[in-house]
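Retro notes, item 3 of 5
We never archived the inputs for the zinc ion complex last cycle. Fixing that now. Sequence and ligand:
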Amino acid sequence: MPTRPLSDYLAEIDGADRTGLEALRVQWLGRHGSLTAALRELGTLGPKERRTAGQELNALKQAVEERLLARQRQLQAQALSSRLDNERVDLSLPGEPVALGHPHPLAVTQERLVSTFVAMGFAMAVGPEVEDDWHNFEALNFPPDHPARDMQDSFALADGGWLLRTHTSPVQIRAMQQAAPGPLRIIAPGRVYRRDDDATHASTFHQIEALVIDRGVSMAHLKATLKTFARALFGADVPLRFRPSYFPFTEPSAELDIGCLFCQQAGCAICKLSGWLEVLGSGMVHPKVLQAGGYDPERMTGFAFGLGIERIAMLYYQIPDIRLMLQGDLRFLSQF
Ligand SMILES: [Zn+2]
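Structure as it came back at the time:
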């Protein structure tokens, strides 16, 4: 028979943690528990004793069970409350930062160029990056063995006659063939390929070029268009200079220089001490190119100009090496 007073049991229960509480329950009320054993022993007592002892023991057992249950609920409530304390959501905390991407500096520059031209009334034209020799060279007045072909050392494809276009000018031919004999005013941005690879040339780069064909188009229209464009892009005060040049597909040809943006024409490393930066090549469309596009050069004339998008981006962002543009290095790209 148990001799311990109820208060001993209750004190043990109140001091137990969750594991200790279960151990106490097994120790007292389990199959081999001490109270279970004591209840079993009641059978060995005489009827009178059994009645008294039975009442006491059952009362003790009930009190212990109730206290065990109460303590268990108390411990559960404490655990829940401390978990809520730990996991509380603080709505005043700033959110987790999300890494947002942004447009590539080339895409930003191309978009800026395109929107400038579109505002001037040009339409967009595109063409294939894999071209045939005729569209890439011959129609643009680069006959076979013409030395100007060497300036555009190209990637030829194994299947004879195909190459990766070396400039966006074949788009002009394709657009002319569609529009002839009507007027035409397009820009053609796109990726081009040449076998160059140094700090200022890359084997893959981007050009944008413009072509206008109509009755009576003259060099004056070309100059006015370039002036408007250059001022929209580089500011109304930018000094401009036309310099005679040579391209097989234009005659006469001129390059447009702008006053160096970095030294205000005092002379610096970027402008190679000249005070001028080359921006684009231009000219009046060669009669042979007009003919190749399906136009009668006696009736229609036109002008064209083209520029490297990387070159403009390098001027804008002062990027020293063109190859950085296509390497996808986040240390470079995240600066923009
Ligand atoms: Zn300079």
